Amino acid sequence: MKIVYFGTPEFAVPSLTRLIDSPHHVVAVVSQPDRPRGRGHRTQVTPTKAVAQARGIPVLQPERVKDPQFLAQLSSYEPDLGVVAAYGRILPDALLAVPRLGMINVHGSILPAYRGAAPVHRAVIAGDSETGVTIMRVISELDAGPTFATRRRAIGPDETSADVERALADLGADVLVEVVDSIAAGRAEETPQDDSRATFAPKLAKTEGRIDWSQPASVIHNLVRGLHPWPLASARLGASRLVVRKTDLKKVAGSVSLGAAAPGTIVSATPDGLDILCGDGNLIRITEIQPEGKRAMAVRDFLAGHSISPGARLEVP
Predict the structure, then answer these.
(1) Enclosing H/E stretch for 275
(2) Were both Cys, which of 123, 159, 217, 233 would link to 128 (CB 3.0–4.6 Å)?
(3) Which residues lie below 8 Å from residue 282, measured CB to CB, with a gap of 6+?
(4) Domain boundary residue among 168, 197, 226?
């Protein structure tokens, strides 16, 4: 089949690569426009665009997917199928109608759970022990189309969203090719979703990274790993904002009585980490930290330049 592929970030690369290497023909890749990124604000080519250019595939980067000129250009490829993986925009009905067989999507959850923009992050933040990928038909309602296939995967207790997303990108690529093959052979089966069981995964906001130390240690640990690599969790020590990049629950045993100490109190500060009292009386250990405006570092390196004594307190930034 002739396929038009919609995807932008790293998550979309494995599925694109697998399709290019399959018997099917990727006739065009549609990516969001290149944007300035990083401290230098240099314009960077999107990951899918880089792959397409290296493989000699045309790349389209419309500012507006409703643009008539873009729709006409896409139609000129006469695609049989459209494939979407983390493209980053809602696709209008006029676009969904371009491919002869419609469009399908690689979604990073076990639908109907976590419909929306941040399914992997929301699952990790919630402390879920399992997630997966679903290949579904794209319809006008958000992530509500019938499904073709689902593949499950465990979430490790210390895995970050970045870890899980990388694994799901590879898993999704495998399932996608199987589904595309079945569509081409005319044997694909679609199963309607149970809308009554739907949950949603809204886009992340920077304000969600403010650590509330009155929460249980496990909730804070899940927040830290769920917001990695963006927008990251943070706390305030005195006048300084600190990004908390990695925490550990396994190395600290037992529970500590709150007594006169408030949640957020630093119980110990050693090269192994900062042990912080949480609202449930348990400790969480910060093992990697990033002072605002500086590089990320192990707590051992942080303490080499900062004097922190037990009894100091981390607060909500």
Answers:
(1) strand 273-277
(2) 123
(3) 216, 217, 218, 249, 252, 255, 256
(4) 197
Domain span at 98: 2-197
Helices and strands (H and E) in the chain: how many: 8, 16
- What span, in angstroms and rounded, lies between the C-alpha atoms of 235 and 315? 6
In the block, tokens 């941040």 appear at: 118
Q: Indicate the number of domains in the chain.
A: 2
* Token digits of residue 91: 């696709």
pTM for the whole structure: 0.94
Q: Are residues 283 and 311 in the same domain?
A: yes
Residue 20 shares a structural domain with residue 143: yes
> Would you say 240 and 267 are in contact if contact means Cβ atoms under 8 Å apart?
no
- Predicted confidence (pLDDT) per residue in 300-313, tens digit: 999 998 889 889 99
Rounded Cα distance between 50 and 48, Å, is: 5
Summarize pLDDT for 68-83 with one digit per residue, the tens: 999 999 999 999 999 9
Report the chain's terminal Cα–Cα distance, integer Å: 53
Q: How far is residue 202's CA from residue 168's CA, in Å, rounded to a whole number?
A: 19
Provide the token pair at 270. Answer: 């050693």
H or E element in which residue 299 lies = helix 299-305
Kindly state whether residues 164 and 139 are assigned to the same domain.
yes
Are 34 and 115 contained in the same domain? yes
| Encoded tokens for 140 | 């006008």
